[in-house]
């Protein structure tokens, strides 16, 4: 059944809900799909970012089943996961315990209290839908640094992870469309990027482009960051350098200015080519990976609306359930720290102490001030304005709805700001590769609701060099219980020190003469009374939020190294026929935004598997 959205002008109403009958891929019916009649050579658990990318590539020559706990986001979330602007304001992305729940889309994961972060429990949104977190993320696209991928290669003892060697996979995964200068209509938001690190002749499924709209507030706040030394990068952030500022591209399909998720990109791409290759099991939760007596993964038990059944894999099982659920499912299946498994009477298949450990997370805080420049929300404040914006969007793929991303800025803290670091903090930071930025700054703004003030402007700082580590464990031996998540925020004092220095940089940006003319009133948050390092730290502890880049809970590493869960081909140590491919195996949080690296990894391992068949 096709439903139409409520629109200002009937002619502009686009169908917003797709029924599964219209989908281009085959869905599996719950039941014991054995290879007698449904030959699943490969079973992918989790139809998320990595899961759909790897399944789609493998489907070229293998029959692949995808087990996905969620459903279809257009049915379950209307246009919220489709229209770029909505990606920034989806209510269920709230991080406090009382966030508005959207159980059809989100896993409803809430951390244990964080003693070093105001004892708060944090809601950590994770996509529970075909497309996974690529269907709810904020779409910024860029890659890590040359030094960070060299570190990856060294940690896993495999030089095929250097930037030069993985660049072909970044290229293969993405297609870039250069900015439409006319539609963006913002000559003061110049896009600079290096086109040579993309290759559109490869027809990469993931669409990467610049929204046809620039938030005026961001264009101003970008100036403040440039004024304090973070000058515009001439190459953007996809060629191995992540330093200075840039208008970054976003995973938006420019054809209709809609979100490019792993579902709308990879899965539809492969479906066009090879409809039979992928069978998707929706609303189906894998509950335990099965092994034969030789510890070879043979499939998984699955539950769909209470019906239990087995999906078998002739060749191998690929686990792509994400940073919290991949370690959970490994532990439920007998792979993890032996002590944890025995606590829950789970038989040990492979004793791997690293499963669920080494959780990296990047956190941020905001400093808010009133400014008198409009923000995107200003243009959508009234029904009349929304009607205008809808016209711009549907007529012309332009206007406020068409765009998500904006301006990102990265730096290593300058000498004057690191002078106060303790020797320990200085030493922790010195362990990162020299080109690894320490802080990312993001500018944004929202309608103020205060008389005489258009906008509340926000400049945030995100920690990209966390020394604190969290962990994930299981509550019981049942998949019905959510994993226990301890984010470990700010448990290492180096992180607080680094963020206090970043806070001072943010205030410096706010005070730069470049934006003096637009300021309206004193600092709103935390306010001018907060000046001592102790007070600043307390503010950070009480207000830090996730930027949703958690990673590394099933870390890739050298065989025999304590903590390593998978080898450099993503194969789980101690068993056969099982790989983990998602952001949980990347051994650290790649500096900046991870989705490009997750897609790259899926491409790389797919290639590996296809070569080995
Ligand atoms: C709100 C938000 C904003 C973000 N913004 C950005 C950004 O702007 N740029 C960027 O680069 N990155 C961003 N990220 C991060 C990025 O989107 C993620 O790192 C990436 O999508 C993770 O991919 P994944 O394959 O590891 O996991 P996911 O994409 O989360 O996939 C996991 C899948 O497994 C399924 N699953 C889990 N358990 C089971 C089970 N037992 N059985 C069956 N299925 C199961 C889930 O439903 C899900 O579909 C953001 C993330 C979030 C949440
Ligand atoms: C999204 O859907 C809602 C509800 O159907 C509708 O009111 C709104 O106009 C739509 N927005 C866009 C940009 O399509
Ligand atoms: C699947 O097979 C198992 C074992 O043979 C059986 O117990 C179960 O009922 C079957 N499930 C379905 C849904 O057919
Ligand atoms: C950039 O241009 C836009 C569109 O004309 C305008 O709204 C905004 O204020 C400008 N920003 C700066 C920093 O001049
Ligand atoms: C959208 O298209 C209609 C019909 O062609 C036109 O009348 C209208 O002016 C257009 N609106 C915008 C904002 O482009
Ligand atoms: C706010 O606006 C009102 C009406 O425009 C004006 O009278 C008042 O002086 C303004 N206040 C400040 C603080 O600018
Ligand atoms: C997780 O980390 C916390 C804090 O370091 C620690 O107290 C706890 O024991 C750890 N839990 C697991 C399961 O490793």
Automatic annotation (TrEMBL):
| InterPro entries according to UniProt | FAD/NAD-bd_sf, GMC_OxRdtase, GMC_OxRdtase_N, GMC_OxRtase_C
Key words, A-Z:
FAD, Flavoprotein, Glycoprotein, Signal
* Gene3D superfamilies referenced in this protein's UniProt entry, alphabetically: FAD/NAD(P)-binding domain, Glucose Oxidase, domain 3
Biological process (GO) annotations held by this record are: secondary metabolite biosynthetic process
Query: The Glucose-methanol-choline oxidoreductase N-terminal domain covers which part of the protein?
Result: 127-150
Has the keyword Glycoprotein been applied to this entry? yes
- Name of the protein described by the UniProt record: GMC oxidoreductase
Taxonomic lineage is:
Eukaryota, Fungi, Dikarya, Ascomycota, Pezizomycotina
